[in-house]
Amino acid sequence: FQGKIDEVAILPLNGRPFVDLSNRAPSGFTTPEVLVAGGQAPGQWAQSAAVSAIGRRSTSGIATCTSVTVTTEGGNQQVPVSCTGRNGVVGTAVGTVNIDHTPPIIRSVTPPPPLYVDTVNGVTRNWYRGGTPLNIDASDDLSGIATCVRNLSAFTGESSIFAGCTDQAGNITTFRGPRTVWIDATPPTAPIANFS
């Protein structure tokens, strides 16, 4: 007899053959299709991001897939990931990440001219309406500024100048100035006329 035995049939007691194909030589296997999980869409930013490979449609089945966590700053970073089939064939894909973990820079925060000024016990008081917007000079070189809190307090009384900015990746910078202002958030009351 000459040739190679690929399959071995074992005849159990019930008389039905069982064919063991677990060690059969691979043939006709395909490259795994790799999908990317994680990363960001254009315009989305994060302080770090995980990119993972998800494999499918491999005739031999998927053995392993890679996952990469990126913390290096930069936009439009291309991150390769892969899946390996049980036959050793590797499929690859690329995810995109935008990473920014540097907070915005606030250079200055200034109020507009006061509504009125008075002096009490030698202290000059600059008065503003509650919630008055501040002028803020801020920037973020990577992801850009998302929002800034730039209004004076809404409560009557002495207050300091405070502002905060958040970038597209969620990094926050706050600013509290040495200058003190006074807030008048109480509307005037009109006297009640008595016509009786």
Task: Write up what this structure looks like.
There is one protein chain. The protein is an all-beta fold and 196 residues long. It has no helices and 15 strands. The protein has strands at residues 8-10, 18-20, 33-38, 49-56, 62-65, 67-70, 74-85, 90-99, 105-110, 116-120, 123-129, 135-139, 145-149, 157-167, 172-184. The strands form five sheets. The chain has a five-stranded mixed beta sheet with strand order 10-11-15-14-13, with no helix packed on it. A three-stranded antiparallel beta sheet has the order 3-4-6, with no helix packed on it. It has a three-stranded antiparallel beta sheet with strand order 5-7-8, with no helix packed on it. A hairpin with a 7-residue loop joins strand 13 (145-149) and strand 14 (157-167).
Please mark out the parts with pLDDT under 50 across 5 or more consecutive residues, or reply none.
1-27
Principal-axes shape call: elongated
What are the secondary-structure elements, in order, as H or E?
A: EEEEEEEEEEEEEEE
> Portion of residues in helices?
under 10%
Please list the strands of the largest sheet in the order they lie side by side: 10-11-15-14-13
